Amino acid sequence: MSLILQSKLKNKTVALVGNAQSLFDNDSGEQIDRHEIVCRINKGPDVCGCKSHGRRTDVLFFSMPEWATKNDDVLEHATMIHTGHRHNPNFMTDEERRSFNPVLRTDYFFPREDFDLLKKQIGYTRHKSWPSTGATSLHLCLQSSPKKLTLYG
Q1: pLDDT per position as a tens digit, 112-143
Q2: Is the dihedral of CA 72, 13, 150, 49 positive or negative?
Q3: Cβ(39)–Cβ(16) under 8 Å?
């Protein structure tokens, strides 16, 4: 469990915001921003639009560092959580880990044990069903005991 996330999310109202096409058809932005904590999956609100997705980002979940760099303003103040298996030291050999230099400030890397657990739960069959950034983000949010977790897009 991420103590970083638990300290931020525990007993708080949390919005977990994805990038589904259906969210663009709604004006949920103000409702999203009213949550005590706003968590986003991959790209920030500048890519999607404030009216539908809101403005705030307190936690950014990302699977690929290059996908998380769209909004430099977000990078300065958001808690950055790497949920993928690529570029994640928890999935590297000791030799790879010694030379690892993250391209992006990262506050927490998703643990391999949790990744393996999610693979089993979704019926992993080779590379066809890796746990998505959404699945890993939801897993971490639920582990952090929010008062209320609302999913958007």
Answers
A1: 888 888 888 887 766 666 788 899 999 999 99
A2: negative
A3: yes
